[in-house]
Amino acid sequence: MPDQLNNALPEQIIKQCQLLINKGRLSEASKNIDDMLTKNPGHIEGIYCLSVCQRKQGKHAQAMDNLAHILSKMPEHARAHQEQGFIHKALGETTKAIVAFEKALVLNPTLFGSWRVLADEPNYSKRQEAKQHVDWLASLPPALVSVSSLIYQKKLHRAEKLCRHFLKDNPHQPEAMRLLAELASKFQILDDAEFLLASCLQFEPTYKRARLDYVHVLQKRQKFHKALEQAKILLDSDPNNTNLKISLGNAQQATGDFSSAVGTFESVLHDNQDNYSVLLTLGHALKTMGRVEDAIKTYRKSYSIKPDFGDAFWSLANLKTYRFSADERLQMREYEASSTTAIIDKIHFCFALGKDLEDSEHFDEAFSFYHRGNKLKNEQDRYDSKPIDISLDTQENDFDAAFFERHKQSGCSAPDPIFIVGLPRAGSTLLEQILSSHSQVDGTMELANIIGLAHRLNGRQVAQDTPRYPGILNNISADNLTKMGELYIEETQHHRQGAIFFIDKMPNNFRHIALIQLILPNAKIIDARRNALSCCFSGFKQLFGEGQQFSYDLGDIGHYYRKYVEIMDHWDKALPGKILRVQYEDVVADLEMQVRRILDYCGLPFEQACIDFHSNKRAVRTPSSEQVRQPIYQSGLEQWRNYELHLEPLKKALSESG
């Protein structure tokens, strides 16, 4: 290695070696990377750079070994899959090359090299689509291709910096505006994303990519009717576009118009009978409507088209009441074990197999699949507990009874919201179903408004920054707190059906009790609590649609539960009598007593419908959807005991002192 590189950082050496590779000085680049890896063994990007060099030198076997090592550590490394494609192509292994390129493009659709090879492959079935991608990427300024690639590599701050720099010189470039909005969405600053996309469409009203993203952002902000309007505009501009029909169906489903959504998805399938992903979405809509048998048929048809489609099997298992056939069990095992099955499908298969084996009382083997699925998911998510710990510790230190006394005149006085908080799988859906059966209470869904406000107050933060939120709550004026509360009431209005009260059932709102109290001091807050081992292990067994990253490791979920209990204990001291704790086990033991207790806390008269909650036909969109359509049951109270030998990491995390 040259003297000037001896003390350089690995990233600097890699950058220099990339320049050498581009100049064809492969031996020199290879030696420099080897020297760097001697000092920094296992450096993923260094190994990747070396594999590129080896491939260009014709050292295909060595390159493949290095790429296999990278993918064993980082299965989502798109460029490593692309390199495998180049090597298979060089060896004349066309089928394997196509598979590798397709895997790369699923992970990063901006890889021009992969699209170009596929577009030039005469027998490739999706050649026309590949050509369109080549043309699209070639039409973009190189800086924006780099921004998009950085987004897929999850290097968001670098992407944002580059995108903003580009927009200084090209302030109305539509793709740059769309990408900046995508970054805002990634940062959970959804109001910024919405504004950017609306502005983009003012300049370029026919830009379909931006309008489609606009639909998605409006849905994330739970502005479902506005999203539906935009989805209709999109489809009117291109009535035969399958993707836009699917977008309309999703928008209809989000507004609760499941009948129209089912009709839209069925019309898509009329012309695209083998679209397994639309079949899956149709199944979800049917399930939410309570048409479980139709949902089962649809999920089965989905996996009959794509036999390794793990999500179809998990969707069946997630009904909680479905039992797999012997053939289905064999199929799941075969594809879960296959090296060609995508990681996301393996995750789905693991959770489905775990649920099936649990139903058959093969608990040790069930745990092995649950553990494997959680490990794969955790490797994808890379959960870090520090930001949440910092937030909760700040609230415990900063917001005591004296703080709330000083702010008692702040906030919007509306008593409308009833917040149900806690951990997932703690019985919050059951409590929502009970309360929403009352004539004066509207059930809604897990509303994102409070969490969205918290993200907005925090702003764009890099990992090492000290977060602005929740400390910023010390500095917000009473007028602004009142405006925030009024905005919450206004923005949630479209979820309501006219009752006096409504439910916001976002479990993780327990992390924002101080914010809720400041902006909505008359809101009711119910803490849905469940036995620690029951709650945590039930979460560990559940593959969530999104979020809840803490639940994919026994140590992480135990730590999260402990921090939750600590902060709720703090609120009992800082806000005595404010929060009603409802223990799931008590609801199961004496339903009527707990129902009366909940209604008394909410200031509501007793209604028998709350006891008969399972007769409520409202759509339920959580993993407990089928369970809350049945009378209350005790069979699941202590399922964790069947797995007790495996739960030492959870017990240790729950017992650790703060």
Protein described:
The protein has 34 helices and five strands. The protein has 658 residues and is mainly alpha-helical. It folds into three domains: 3-139, Serine Threonine Protein Phosphatase 5, Tetratricopeptide repeat; 174-381, Alpha Horseshoe (Serine Threonine Protein Phosphatase 5, Tetratricopeptide repeat), CATH 1.25.40; 386-655, P-loop containing nucleotide triphosphate hydrolases (Rossmann fold, 3-Layer(aba) Sandwich). The protein has a five-stranded parallel sheet, with helices on both faces. Helix 2 (10-22) packs parallel to helix 4 (44-56), helix 16 runs antiparallel to helix 17 and helix 17 (258-271) packs antiparallel against helix 18 (276-288). The model has no long low-confidence stretch (mean pLDDT 92). InterPro entries: P-loop_NTPase, TPR-like_helical_dom_sf, TPR_rpt, TPST-like. Keywords: TPR repeat, Transferase. TPR repeats lie at residues 78-111, 276-309.
- The overall strand count is 5
Which architecture of the largest domain does the CATH hierarchy give at level 2?
3-Layer(aba) Sandwich
CATH topology value of the largest domain:
Rossmann fold
The tally of domains stands at 3
| Rg over alpha carbons | 26 Å
Largest sheet: 5 strands, parallel
CATH class of the largest domain: Alpha Beta
The strands making up the biggest β-sheet line up spatially as: 2-3-1-4-5
| Class based on secondary structure composition and strand pairing | mainly alpha
Looking at this structure, what is the CATH superfamily of the largest domain?
P-loop containing nucleotide triphosphate hydrolases
The dominant shape is: globular
Mean pLDDT across the residues is 92
Percent of residues in beta strands: under 5%
| N-C termini distance | 48 Å
InterPro entries: P-loop_NTPase (IPR027417), TPR-like_helical_dom_sf (IPR011990), TPR_rpt (IPR019734), TPST-like (IPR026634)
Protein name: Sulfotransferase
GO molecular function: protein-tyrosine sulfotransferase activity
TPR repeats: 78-111, 276-309
